[in-house]
Amino acid sequence: MAIAEAEQSSAPLPLVTQLHGWVTTVDHKRIGIMYILMSFLFLVVGGIEALLIRLQLWVPDNTLIGPDTFNQLFTMHGTTMIFFVVMPMLTGFANYMVPLMIGCRDVAFPRLNALGFWLSLFGGCILYTCYFTGDALYGMGSAPDVGWFAYAPLTSPAYARGGAVDYWILGTSVSGVGALTFAVNLIATILTMRAPGMKLNQVPLFVWMMLIDSWLILVAFPPLTAAQIMLILDRYAGAHFFDTQSGGSALLWQHLFWFFGHPEVYIMVLPAFGIISEIIPVFSRKVIFGYASMAAATAAIGLISLGVWAHHMFTVGLDDRLDAYFSAASFLIAVPTGIKVFNWTATLYGGRLKMRTPMLFALGFLSMFLIGGLTGIMLATVPVDWQVSDSYFLVAHFHYVLFGGSLFALMGGCYYWFPKATGKMLSEKLGLWHFWLLFIGFNLLFGPMHIAGILGMPRRVYTYEAGQGWEIWNQISTIGAFVMGFGILFFFINIAVSLRSGKKAGDDPWDAWTLEWATSSPPPSYNFEQILAVRSRRPLWDLKHPEDPDWKYE
Ligand code: HEM
Ligand SMILES: [Cu+2]
User: Fold this and answer.
1) Is the pLDDT assigned to residue 274 strictly greater than 50?
2) Using CA positions, which residue lies closest to atom 43 of ligand 1?
């Protein structure tokens, strides 16, 4: 009550009241912002871990960081980036934008939404408390050092004796439950709360992709949680699920993990597809090419991605027929993905391109993701994988997908929607610095890893001997990492500066066509004063151009 009254007067609220408002909020927009802030925090932490890794690899026989700490660093880095940077960032965008884009006032279950956020954040906190208490049990190592996919038998009580692995299990599974609540909520929202008249084949493509994304979360996370519970039983209750010496199977862990792990890649990249499917049409001043095929391709990717997990296991010695199946299924994914790339290119073709920062990031995404996709096809070829599996070639490949893909597009989303969420534009000038440093740094960092990998440099080694031809590639990588670090610094500076003194955005700074731009920036807590009726895929175009509305042609 006090808060509601105070909101009406214009005097700023006392800090404690404001904080109380944020902590107790069930507003999808505030929860979205908190998710994104959380991901920024962990981006800094995971980024520093990555820089330390790169510093250690700067020269051969380096002694800056010892082997144990190095193992912990890449484990924490990978786990952090996936579970606590990309996941919360995409969840944040979906939370903020989906209800606005489908013209409703909140998600279906606002309290569940808040629970999901706090579980995710709590998961991250659990993981990092390992640094304070992880060696309590037997005094062995403070942080988990088993890699982000925590293969058996490394995680068994015999090899991981301290509590560190338990923090990994608990942190990721708690945040995984958070992701599940998010997915349930978003599916219910999209299916039941669209603005009157908005058919499922008229929702913005970002919403379509988030629908498939949530569905993938629902299918992929429970096997991981189950596997983690089995691992806890192995570790503390004398079970032997993954203990080969007692009749268990270390491979079982790999199957369960990758049944989650491969779809997880698509869980991280579909939102990116969605974001650039919003940005590219607006900045090409054209309708998206092939809406229906785009939605269908997303569904196809979702389905196929559930059946390719063992392409992460070609080197364990599966049956040849299994290898052949998983290889072929992986190639198949290139078809719907190719359709998408074709559609984006066709949208760009002949458009009046406006090279503002969101568009730069979208194009950055397209080119980098293409490289990651192509090396992915190489890796899906069994004999190639046998050669370069677990080498730096692989590290290069998945960073092109996850960083050049997901994170580039998510950053583009920040530039695109920041004006909506804050009422201020981000600076184009600082944005250019951000983009170009990131883009150049990124390619310096991860490009040479392809070569180091082909020259035989294994991943997860804390140092290497001189004279194998790897030095120069590692040095370029490390320089690239710092260039990129500066790029990200510009991003944060841009946000801070623009929040204080950015240009006013107005409701619809990009002259866009989807419903989030129909309300004020930032939107009021109830989103829309009046719920708009929708008759086409570009409802705002119809409003702006009553003489020539889209619904006449759709
Ligand atoms: C800030 C820039 C980044 C740098 C400099 C960086 C660098 C590295 C390096 C050098 C490794 C290999 C460690 C090793 O095998 O010895 C690595 C591993 C990894 N990175 Fe990154 N990375 C960055 C960003 C990201 C992002 C954005 C993601 C995911 C969204 C990510 C996910 C991973 C994963 C999953 C691993 C594997 C960890 C493991 O082997 O268990 N990284 N990174
Ligand atoms: Cu995969």
Assistant:
1) yes
2) 50
Q: Residue 62 domain-assigned?
A: no
Which residue is listed with tokens 């189950």?
Answer: 226
DSSP assigned state of 458: B
**Phi, psi (5° rounding) for residue 320?**
-55, -40
Answer whether 80 contacts ligand 1 (Cβ < 6 A).
Answer: no
Total domain count for the chain? 1
Q: What is the pLDDT of residues 503-553, one digit of tens each?
A: 999 999 999 999 999 999 999 999 999 888 999 999 999 999 999 999 988
DSSP classification of residue 402: I
331's tokens: 């190639």
Residue 186 has φ and ψ, to the nearest 5°, of: -70, -40
Per residue, the 3-state secondary structure of 470-528, as one string, reads: CHHHHHHHHHHHHHHHHHHHHHHHHHHHHHHHCCECCCCCCCCCCHHHHCCCCCCCCCC
| Contact 458 CB / ligand 1 (< 6 Å) | no
* Cβ atoms within 10 Å of 402's Cβ, excluding its own: 22
313 C-alpha vs ligand 2 centroid, how far in Å? 9
Q: Is 402 in the pocket of ligand 1 (CB under 6 A)?
A: yes
- How far apart are the C-alpha atoms of 514 and 327, rounded to whole Å? 39
> Would you say residue 361 lies in a domain?
yes
Q: Which atom of ligand 1 sits closest to the CA of residue 461?
A: 16
Would you say the CB of residue 431 lies under 6 angstroms from ligand 1?
no
Give domain status of residue 494, yes or no: yes
Q: Got the DSSP string for 380-445? A: TSHHHHHHHTTBHHHHHHHHHHIIIIIIHHHHHHHHHHHHHHHSBPPPHHHHHHHHHHHHHHHHHH
Verify whether ligand 1 is closer than 6 Å to residue 464 (CB atom): no
Say if residue 153 is preceded by a cis peptide, omega within 30 of 0: yes
Q: Indicate which residue's Cα is closest to atom 28 of ligand 1.
A: 81
What are 99's two structure tokens? 């209800």
Task: List residues, by chain if needed, whose CB lies under 5 Å from ion ligand 2.
Answer: 262
- Which ligand has the shortest distance to the CA of 58? 1
CA of 332 to the centre of ligand 1 (A): 27
The Cα 470–Cα 36 span in angstroms is 37
275 contacts 410 by C-beta, under 8 angstroms: yes
Contact between residue 178 and residue 106 where contact means Cβ atoms under 8 Å apart: no
Predicted confidence (pLDDT) per residue in 124-145, tens digit? 999 999 888 756 555 555 899 9
State in Å: Cα 376 to ligand 2 middle. Answer: 9
Q: Is it the case that residue 13 has pLDDT exceeding 90?
A: no
Residue 444 maps to a domain: yes
Residue 459 in contact with ligand 1 by CB distance below 6 A: yes
Q: Are 240 and 234 in contact (CB under 8 A)?
A: yes
The range of the structural domain enclosing residue 404 comes to: 355-508
Which residue, 185, 34, 180, is CA-closest to 106? 185
User: Which pLDDT does position 552 carry in this prediction?
Assistant: 86
Q: What is the mean pLDDT of residues 483-508?
A: 97
- Report DSSP letters for 250-308, one per residue: HHHHHHHHHHHHHHHHHHHHHHHHHHHHHHHHHHHTSPPTTHHHHHHHHHHHHHHGGG-
